[in-house]
Structures are given as C-alpha cells and as structure tokens.
C-alpha cells in the first residue's frame, strides 16, 4: 500500500509530500501503520531514499485520549481507531489537522485550552442547579479536546472570534455547575459561539465520544433567553 | 515561594491545585495535554470509605484490606493516612464538578472491587479517570486564569538540578526547540506515572516510560519495591498494545478455558472450584501463564441483551479492534503488565531521599506494598498530590540557587556528542530488545537463572548505549532517555533477584513461599554505577 504523508520540519518551514510503501499487517490501524513505517533501522521513502521518522502523537492507542487526531484520506479521525481494512483503494493519505498550527509532521498545537483559560471558562465556586442532567454532564465531560469537530466546522477559521464546539461544551459544564456564573458564561458563549454557529452539526456527527452538543446548546440558549428553563 | 511539577496527570494536577489554594505559584510541565495522560484510561473507580458506605464498613476495614492486599509491606501509617482521607477526596472531587454515577437519591454510587471486604469503589460510568481529569483540568484552569499555575506544554524532564543532596529545580528539554532549559524552583515534584515503556506493550499509556525515576536514581534518589509489578490477567492483544478486558466479564460469569484435543479445559474451575474464574489478578495471571496455551474468556452464553446492558465497552472494544463478536465467540486473552507498585522511594510527606524533591502518583512507591487493590491507585494519586502540597506549603523558600552552569554546559555537550556516534543500531532497536528482555526474564513467574540472564543483557545494552547511533529524526528525548531506562530496568531485575521469596505480585518458582525475614520494602541505591539493594528494616521510608 502506498502511503502519502503531508510533512513539515518546523512551524516556519513549508510543508511537503512524501510517500512510503507499507507492507505490514492488513488488520493494522493507521496508528499501527505509522509505527510500522517508523520502526526500521533506516527509514526510506518510496524512492528508496533515506529519510526522517514521521512525527505523530499518541498515548492511549485505544481512542480515549484524542492525541492521534489527524486527517486520513480527507476524513478527520483518531488514527488509532481508523483501520486499514476500511480504507478503499490502494493508497492512503495522511495530513495533520488543518485548522491548527502544525509543529512537526502530523503534530499540531491545539489552542482550546488557552482559549478556555483566557475566557475564564472554569467553575469557580461549585453550586450546581437542582435537577442536574447527570447523563449530559457525563457526556460533555468526556470531551478529548481532540479537535476533530473543529476540523469539520464550516465556521471555525483561526480561533480568534469563533471558538468551536469544545468551547460550547465546556461553557455548558460551567453553567451546569455554577448557577451564579451561568449568566456570565452564557454571554461569552453567545459572543464566541452561538452568534456565528451555522448549526451545520457536522461536529456532532464526527465526535468520537458521541457528545450531543445540541442538548448543551439548548440549555445555554435558554439561560441566555432567560426563559426560566434552568434545569441541568 | 514556588514549585515545579513535572507531569500533569491526576497526581500532578491534584498537587498543583492544592498548592495554588495554599497561595504557592506552580509551573506545571508536561509534553502534552492532561487529556493525554494515562489517568484518563482508568475505568473502574476510586476507593473510599464515606459515611454513607455500608454498615460495618470503616476506615479501619479499608486500611486492613489495603495492607493485606499489599502483603503487609505497604506501610501502616501511610495507608492509614490514605484511607482516612477517602471521604475528603471524594467530596473535593464532587466540589470541582466530577460527574460521579449516582443512585436514585443523587448520591455517588459504589461498586464492589476485588480484594475488598466491602463495596467502596466510587465510579463515573465507565470512565472514572477521564471524568476526574476533566474536572481537575477545569480547576487547574481556574488557577491558570488567576496566574497561580503556569502550564508549560512541549517540555520533557531531562534531569534534576541537584547539589549536595538538595534539589533546586530541573533541567527540561524543550521538545519544540530541541534544547535544554533550566527551571529553578524551591520545590520540585515528579508526577510522571509508571514505567510502562520498559515492557513495550502494556495496558497503559505510551507516555509513561520511567525515564524520570531512572534518571533521578542515577542522580542519587533511592528507588523502592521495583520488583512488584501488577499483571492484569485478561487483556486483548492488538498489534500495538494490550487492551484491558474488564474484570466485569468474569464478574458476570465469564469462563476461562484453553483447548486440548479440540475440547475446552476450564482450568481455573478445575483447580479452584466454581469460583475459580474470580480468583485474584496475580493467581489468574500465573495460571494463564503456567498453562502455556492460548487462553480464551467466554461470555457468549449470556443473552445478548445482558451483554448490551452490562458489558457494552467490552463488546465495542473487541469488535472495533479485533472484529470479535463477544455474543458469539470467546475472547482470546493474555496477561499484561498493568501497574507498578514500585518507583521513587518517598517518606510519609512524599519527599524523596533528595531534599526538596518530591514524588507523587504512580511514579512514587507508597501505600500499595507488594500488590495494589483496584481503585486504590486513583485514590493514592489524589492523596499523594495533596500530601506533597501540604508539606511544601509549610516549608520555607531558600531562593538561593547554586551555580549549575558547568553542569548544564556538560549535559548540552553530551546531547550533541551523542549525535556524532557511529553505530548501525538506532536507539529504537535497543528499546525493543529491552522490552523483550523484561517480558522474558522478569515475567509473571521468575527465577534466579532468568533474572541473572536479564541483568546480563541490560548490562550489555548499557555498555553499548553510549556508542549507539543517535537518530536525528526522532525527538532527542527518545535518544537521551534510553540510558536511564536501561538503568531502571537493571535495578528492577536486581531487586527481583534479591527478593528470594514470593510475595504479592512477585512470584519466584525457585522460592515459592513468603518468608518473614523479607517482610520489608526493598530499597535500591545507585552507587558508583552499581545497584545496591537492601531491605528497609529500619522503616526509614515509613517516617
Ligand atoms: C487501562 C487502565 C485502567 C486503570 N483503571 C484504574 C481504576 O479503575 N482505578 C484506579 O484506581 N486506577 C486505575 N488505573 C491506574 C491509574 O490510572 C494510574 O495509576 C493513575 O492514573 C496514575 O496517575 P499519575 O498522575 O501518577 O500518572 P499519569 O496519569 O500517567 O500522568 C503522568 C504525566 O507525566 C507526564 N510525563 C511522563 N513522562 C514525562 C517526562 N519524562 N517529562 C515530563 N512529563 C512526563 C505525562 O505526560 C503525564 O502528564 C488504571 C490504569 C490503566 C492503564
Ligand atoms: S467535542 Fe468531540 S470531536 Fe470535539 S474535541 Fe471534544 S471529543 Fe473531540
Ligand atoms: S492514541 Fe489516544 S486516541 Fe489515539
């Protein structure tokens, strides 16, 4: 199988394509494929030239940490959960997520944590609303900050104004746990999410954790409208 | 006053937020986000004795279960501290928004876990670790916004800035700029998790490699109880890792068997009776290993609906990673390294043998003795972070740092020199050989011959480590971490060799009985390039 990878040496260098030939197990995941190519005394590209090892991030290798998010054949996926058996055709193309700065090869810098910190999206003093929706809280707190939802979002560009689904998700978590802060959070959410959101919901479809943003958004919208539905 | 914390899993973050609450500024270091730490993988739960636990349960009972599970070398005072703070920790976790599963009255639910006399494992669905991490990340963010915690990503530990037995911070490797940078600090806390990478494929995270413990050992820190390594009996092997198959499968009636002449042999039931499949982790692991056959775990006889309701994660994992339908076919299982009871030796306040250097979480050896009870490690990750923070908050700042410029210059030169060496073996190659050696010679069942053989091999790898071809195309961290990992591996083999008895997770076929004379923790020091092993008969690390 031919593997085409969009590589980059450092932030300030231009990206370039390099191809490899993969002859490893057919039941491997894309993460396994990367390990297979990297684990050789010398790593050579499809032209037989010596080259550098491919940099990518991983930790859990079972779809629960989000480190390995990348684009495989134009589809944003977790590489450890994407299997070669599901790939159509004889070629596979790997690219880093496109909405974030690339640090090296397939490794990107995700800005979600800074955005959330800069906007004070934290609980502070815990005073949850009565009738909490534990299931929705549980699901929302499963967010990996992997960025797959941002990759498919038609509105997210550089993270300066519109912050994307993980932002709305954490806004919900704060509003659910600190009634006093709910109003303030709903304002930030309105400014940096709701006012721009195209309700395309590609985010919800791609999320590997199956997080239901619509349910969180509904709650936050109701706070903003002040229609009294404050149950979480 | 300030503190430097290396590692941002549950232990590192627990320590950071507690220090920030004490008004102490923290720099929190990790190569990547907390979401990528091993802590997110913990599924089952966290043990605690709460006022609402069953009648008859008590802190004392949790203490006794923990001491017994650890074959009585876990340190009684330490264990009392741990179990005595269970309620405080669960309440704290609730108060920062951890979404515990709740009962009909909105109170956190409990489940039963192995080795415990009462039901005291609190849980968050099937992702307890992840839910705790999410809550701690948000609490950390609160103090980041207030300027009390500064997170620095893309940094890995290189070495301690240590002089005359005192730590003044750490030399860190900037992964993006590929350079060493000194971070001075009044107090340094190591929270880098277990040493999975010594064994290659395990149930845990690829981020945990034991490097920090190995390097600090070479710089004078004592290590403790390295020989105690917990195997999980039932994991599913994939090309890249061994995935934990929850004990819940056996809890629901799952049966272990192997095939002989086409017939199923239910070896656990044959040997231990009806409840054979539910024996403790170490016994099941040993039996699977001992039978020398491919072993399977069958749950297909349960009706599909029960499987969907009670074992959905196991069902999905087997289907996704191996295409196995557990409703129709048995699961091939193999034991795997899962948890490290050993690590940096720490006193009750979590300070190592080096002044102002602390260790918390799985990289520190405390509480679990010769074997850990499921659910106690999350509790100890939280508790140890708090203990270290409280100790630090009562100390004074020295604010006078010795001159480390020569040391730093030397270390920079060593890194660069390593690149000039010419050998046909890249570092990757030796790392792989190391994991084969550790699995073969320090496996579930050990003996003198193999342990010696293993050490001979690690000695050899160490002797060539300086001559290896350092690979410019991987992170320099991957290159420079090798030597300390090999040293840690050597120390582990030596500790296992010196413990001439069987206790907890350490099983010797040539000494298969527990002996009173070994009822102490093992300590290892690094003296003039050699390992010095002794038993802690004076209990110096229990004070
Ligand atoms: C599959 C699985 C299931 C588990 N289930 C349970 C359970 O149900 N209950 C329970 O109590 N325990 C469980 N455990 C054990 C528990 O998860 C761990 O013991 C605990 O999370 C360890 O936390 P920690 O903070 O010490 O380390 P980790 O979470 O491993 O964090 C280590 C941190 O250090 C960083 N780091 C590593 N090396 C370096 C370096 N060289 N330089 C800088 N930073 C570094 C990492 O990036 C990470 O941020 C389970 C473990 C596994 C693998
Ligand atoms: S919401 Fe889902 S897709 Fe988006 S970052 Fe979180 S886990 Fe990833
Ligand atoms: S490595 Fe954790 S999601 Fe892929």
Secondary structure topology:
The complex is a heterodimer of chains A (232) and B (543).
Chain A (H helix, E strand, L loop, with lengths): L1 E6 L8 E6 L8 H9 L30 E4 L2 E4 L12 E5 L6 E3 L2 E2 L3 H7 L15 H7 L7 H5 L12 H13 L1 H16 L7 H5 L6 H13 L7
Parallel strand pairs in A: 1-5
Antiparallel strand pairs in A: 1-2, 3-4, 3-5, 6-7
Chain B lengths: L1 E5 L3 H12 L3 E6 L15 E2 L11 H11 L6 H9 L1 H10 L14 E2 L9 E2 L5 H18 L3 E5 L1 E9 L2 E9 L4 E6 L2 E4 L20 H8 L4 E2 L4 E9 L4 E3 L3 H4 L3 E6 L2 E3 L1 H6 L8 H11 L3 E4 L5 H7 L1 H11 L8 E10 L2 E3 L11 E3 L4 E2 L10 H18 L11 H16 L6 H15 L6 H18 L10 H23 L23 E6 L2 E6 L8
Parallel strand pairs in B: 1-2, 1-10, 2-6, 10-19, 18-20
Antiparallel strand pairs in B: 3-5, 4-5, 7-8, 8-9, 11-18, 11-21, 12-13, 12-17, 14-15, 14-16, 16-17, 21-22
Helix pairs in contact in B: 1-5, 1-12, 2-3, 6-16, 14-15, 14-16, 15-16
Bound molecules: flavin-adenine dinucleotide (FAD), iron/sulfur cluster (SF4) and FE2/S2 (inorganic) cluster (FES).
Keywords:
heterodimer, A: 232 residues, alpha+beta, Ubiquitin-like (UB roll), Fumarate Reductase Iron-sulfur Protein, Chain B, domain 2, 2 domains, 5-stranded mixed sheet, two-stranded antiparallel ribbon, B: 543 residues, Flavocytochrome C3, Chain A, domain 1, Methane Monooxygenase Hydroxylase, Chain G, domain 1, 6-stranded antiparallel sheet, 5-stranded parallel sheet, 22 strands, binds flavin-adenine dinucleotide, binds iron/sulfur cluster, binds FE2/S2 (inorganic) cluster
Structural account:
The complex is a heterodimer of chains A (232) and B (543). In chain A, 32% of the residues lie in helices and 13% in strands. Chain A has eight helices and seven strands; from the N terminus they run E-E-H-E-E-E-E-E-H-H-H-H-H-H-H. Chain A has helices at residues 30-38, 112-118, 134-140, 148-152, 165-177, 179-194, 202-206, 213-225; strands spanning 2-7, 16-21, 69-72, 75-78, 91-95, 102-104, 107-108. In chain A, strand 3 and strand 4 form a beta hairpin. Chain A is elongated. The mean pLDDT of chain A is 92. Chain B has 543 residues and is an alpha+beta fold. Among the domains of chain B are: 231-336, Succinate dehydrogenase/fumarate reductase flavoprotein, catalytic domain (Flavocytochrome C3, Chain A, domain 1, Alpha-Beta Complex), CATH 3.90.700.10; 416-532, Methane Monooxygenase Hydroxylase, Chain G, domain 1 (Up-down Bundle), CATH 1.20.58. In chain B, the strands form five sheets. In chain B, strands 13-12-17-16-14-15 form a six-stranded antiparallel β-sheet. In chain B, helix 14 (427-441) runs parallel beside helix 16. The model of chain B has no long low-confidence stretch (mean pLDDT 94). Classes of the chains: A alpha+beta (232), B alpha+beta (543). At the A-B interface, helix 1, helix 2, helix 3 and helix 5 of A face helix 5, helix 11 and helix 14 of B. The structure holds flavin-adenine dinucleotide (FAD), iron/sulfur cluster and FE2/S2 (inorganic) cluster. FE2/S2 (inorganic) cluster is lined by residues 58-61, 63-68, 78, 80 of chain A.
């Amino acid at each position: 199988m031919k593997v085409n990878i969009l590589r980059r040496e450092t932030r300030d260098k231009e990206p370039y394509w390099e191809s490899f030939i993969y002859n490893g197990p057919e039941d491997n995941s894309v993460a396994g494929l990367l390990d297979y190519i990297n684990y050789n005394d010398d790593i050579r590209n499809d032209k037989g030239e010596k080259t550098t090892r491919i940099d990518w991030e991983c930790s859990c290798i079972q779809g629960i940490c989000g480190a390995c998010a990348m684009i495989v054949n134009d589809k944003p996926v977790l590489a450890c959960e994407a299997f070669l058996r599901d790939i159509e055709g004889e070629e596979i193309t790997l690219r880093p997520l496109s909405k974030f700065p690339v640090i090296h090869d397939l490794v990107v810098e995700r800005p979600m944590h800074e955005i959330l910190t800069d906007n004070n999206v934290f609980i502070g003093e815990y005073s949850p609303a009565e009738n909490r929706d534990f299931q929705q809280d549980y699901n929302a707190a499963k967010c990996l900050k992997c960025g797959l939802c941002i990759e498919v979002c038609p509105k997210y560009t550089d993270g300066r104004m519109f912050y994307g689904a993980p932002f709305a998700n954490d806004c919900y978590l704060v509003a659910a746990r600190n009634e006093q802060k709910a109003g303030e959070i709903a304002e930030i959410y309105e400014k940096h999410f709701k006012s721009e959101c195209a309700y395309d919901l590609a985010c919800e479809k791609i999320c590997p954790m199956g997080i239901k943003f619509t349910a969180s958004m509904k709650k936050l919208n109701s706070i903003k409208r002040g229609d009294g539905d404050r149950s979480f | 006053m300030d503190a430097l914390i290396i590692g941002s899993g549950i232990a590192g973050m627990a320590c950071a937020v507690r220090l920030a609450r004490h008004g102490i500024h923290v720099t929190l270091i990790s190569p990547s986000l907390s979401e990528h730490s091993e802590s997110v993988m913990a599924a089952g739960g966290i043990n605690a004795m709460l006022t609402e636990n069953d009648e008859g349960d008590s802190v004392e009972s949790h203490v006794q279960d923990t001491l017994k599970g650890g074959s009585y070398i876990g340190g009684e005072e330490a264990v009392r501290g741990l179990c005595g703070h269970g309620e405080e920790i669960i309440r704290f976790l609730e108060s920062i928004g951890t979404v515990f599963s709740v009962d009909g009255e909105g109170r956190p639910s409990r489940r039963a876990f192995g080795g415990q006399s009462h039901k005291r494992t609190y849980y968050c669905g099937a992702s307890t670790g992840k839910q705790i991490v999410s809550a701690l990340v948000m609490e950390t963010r609160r103090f980041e916004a207030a300027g009390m915690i500064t997170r620095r990503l893309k940094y890995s530990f290189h070495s301690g800035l240590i002089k005359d037995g005192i730590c003044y911070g750490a030399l860190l490797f900037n992964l993006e700029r590929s350079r060493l940078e000194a971070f001075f600090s009044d107090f340094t806390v190591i929270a880098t998790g277990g040493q999975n990478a010594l064994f290659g494929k395990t149930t845990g995270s690829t981020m945990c490699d034991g490097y920090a413990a190995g390097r600090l050992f070479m710089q004078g820190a004592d290590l403790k109880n390295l020989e105690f390594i917990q195997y999980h009996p039932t994991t599913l092997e994939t090309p890249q890792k061994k995935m934990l198959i929850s004990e819940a499968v056996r809890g629901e009636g799952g049966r272990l068997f192997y095939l002989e002449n086409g017939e199923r042999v239910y070896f656990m039931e044959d040997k231990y009776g009806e409840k054979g499949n539910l024996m403790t982790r170490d016994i099941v692991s040993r039996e699977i290993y001992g039978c020398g056959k491919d072993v399977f775990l069958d749950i297909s006889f349960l009706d599909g609906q029960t499987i969907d309701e009670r074992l959905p994660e196991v069902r999905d994992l087997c289907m996704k990673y191996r295409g196995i339908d557990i409703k129709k076919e048995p699961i091939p299982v193999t034991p795997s390294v899962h948890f490290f009871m050993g690590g940096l030796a720490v006193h009750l306040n979590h300070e190592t043998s080096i002044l102002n250097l602390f260790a918390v979480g799985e990289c520190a050896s405390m509480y679990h003795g010769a074997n850990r009870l499921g659910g106690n490690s999350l509790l100890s990750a939280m508790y140890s972070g708090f203990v270290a923070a409280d100790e630090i908050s009562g100390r004074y700042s020295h604010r006078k740092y010795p001159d480390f410029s020569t040391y730093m210059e030397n270390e920079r030169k060593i890194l660069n020199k390593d690149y000039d060496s010419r050998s046909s073996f890249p570092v990757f190659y030796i790392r792989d050989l190391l994991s084969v050696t550790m699995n073969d010679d320090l496996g579930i069942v050990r003996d003198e011959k193999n342990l010696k053989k293993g050490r001979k091999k690690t000695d050899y790898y160490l002797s060539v480590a300086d001559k290896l071809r350092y690979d410019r195309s991987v992170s320099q961290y991957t290159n420079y971490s090798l030597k300390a990992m090999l040293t840690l591996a050597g120390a582990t083999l030596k500790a296992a060799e010196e413990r001439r008895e069987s206790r907890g997770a350490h099983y010797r076929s040539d000494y298969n009985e527990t002996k009173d004379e070994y009822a102490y923790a093992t300590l290892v020091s690094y003296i003039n390039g050699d390992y010095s092993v002794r038993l802690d008969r004076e209990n110096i690390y229990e004070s």
